[in-house]
Amino acid sequence: MVGNQPLEILESVKRVLVDDKPNSFEECVKWARLYFEEQYNNQIQQLLYNFPKDYTTTSGAPFWSGPKRCPHPLKFDVNNKTHLDYIVSAANLKAFMYGLPQNRDRDEIAKYVSTLIIPKFIPKAGNYLFL
To answer: Of 72, 95, 124, 129, which sees the most CB atoms within 10 A?
Structure first.
């Protein structure tokens, strides 16, 4: 509805500026790690839960064929340079956005990331393609 749009925008602004505002660089690192998990593991696991690797269409053709290649969830590895680059970059971007001190000490960030407890993925029933 057009009438609700301004309210939705205000709620989004409040969420970004107040509710989800980090208070420290560590909170930015935690956010980055959880975001990595959601984007590159949980959403792919949910997709595979809804459409397993051997899923077939109603006509019996493989669902994962042609341009639709079966994805594989990533398991975060703090020793993987690309994975850690993602965390360092995302955390520093978030810190910058909120005027918090930034930190590019990869060893310190890796040490902190290793202490975080990441919730186990639990699939949702139904065809949730975009979470």
So the answer is: 95
Q: What is the domain partition of the chain in residue ranges?
A: 33-115
Question: Residue 131 class from Cβ within 10 Å (0-12 exposed, 13-18 middle, 19+ buried)?
Answer: exposed
Distance, in Å, from the CA atom of 109 to the CA atom of 120, rounded to the nearest integer, reads 22
Q: Where are the alpha helices (DSSP H) in the chain?
A: 5-14, 25-37, 43-50, 81-97, 106-115
- What is the distance, to the nearest Å, from the Cα of residue 41 to the centroid of all Cα atoms in its chain? 8
- DSSP secondary structure letter of residue 19: I
Please give the biggest Cα pair distance in the chain: 56
Write out the DSSP string of 75-106.
PP-TT-HHHHHHHHHHHHHHHHHTTPPP---H
- In DSSP terms, 62 is beta-bridged to 56
Grouping H, G, I as helix, E, B as strand and the rest as coil, residue 69 is coil
